[in-house]
Amino acid sequence: MFRYTHALVCRVPVAFRTRAEIDLEEARRQHEALCRLLRELGVDVVELPPDELHPECVFVEDTAVICNGVALITRPGAPHRQGEVDTVRAVLKKELGLPIVEISDEAAKLDGGDVLFTGREFFVGLSEWTNEAGARALAASFPEFSVTPIKVSEPRHLKALVSMAAPDVLCVSKGAASQEVLRRIEREASFSYQTLTVPEDSAANVLSVNGTLIHRSAAEAPETCKVEHRFILNFPIRKLSRMLNLFF
Fold first, then answer.
1. Shortest CA distance to 166 belongs to which of 138, 196, 204, 131?
2. Which residues fall in a coiled-coil region (predicted)?
3. For residues 13 and 49, is the Cβ–Cβ distance under 8 A?
4. Which of 238, 236, 121 is nearest to 190 (CA)?
């Protein structure tokens, strides 16, 4: 199992509270808790300053896909977010020294939240924010891996419906949308995967970091937190409240 060495996150801007459901101070506490936990897991956390011109800058994962030491700069599907990539590109290139790949096709749309890497292959969600041209750009950037487009019917990113709970273990919810995506992945996958099914839809989005599973707290996913997952994962589980800015 590979280990993560760095995480790129962005501090929460004041402008983020324009999203009606957001409690700004709570979001900042959650951000700090996530950074603290990542450091405990041996990850070097690089924090970007808040970008008041781009309230959604906290969702850093949408701006780049990194694999095998190469960083693909995405083309976010929401036009108002495309300016976010400039800061991320500069940090990845100058501070982390990563080779940068750009998407030349202006018709391409690609959000990192739609890119699921299993360690063996890529699945790309075709959603409101990612299209076939974006999937082709990903495939061209990482030719050593198969890249399979997966239709996402609901207005959600692929990784909101299915994520990696552990090596070769997919985390999905019992919800219809998550199960539909799982069936599509199972039909198209080049490898076999186990499945961890959780009760709440929101709980399908987890992080597996250096031998620890990070998922939502009991406040957000009470039924999921009652389920004992260790029999399938065989490593520690840590609970966080709502995860805002996940990017590796």
1. 196
2. 17-44
3. no
4. 121
CA 187 – CA 101 distance, rounded (Å): 30
Instruction: Quick: pLDDT tens for 89-120.
Output: 999 999 999 999 999 999 999 999 999 999 99
Helix, strand or coil, per DSSP, at residue 39: helix
For the chain, first and last CA: distance in Å?
15
96: Cβ contacts below 8 Å, ≥ 6 apart: 6, 46
**Could you tell me which of 220, 227, 186 has the C-alpha nearest to residue 205?**
220
CA distance 237 to 212: 6
Angle CA 84–163–93, to nearest 5: 35
Q: What 8-state DSSP symbol labels residue 158?
A: G
| H or E segment and range at residue 142 | none
Distances (CA, A) of 168 to 18, 52, 81, 120, 189: 38, 38, 32, 9, 12
For the record, the structure tokens of 43 come out as 């990850």
- Name the residue with higher pLDDT: 95 or 246: 95
Mean of pLDDT over the chain:
90
Burial class (CB in 10 A: 0-12, 13-18, 19+), 241: middle
Q: How far apart are CA 209 and CA 164, in angstroms?
A: 10
Contact 74, 111 (CB under 8 A): yes
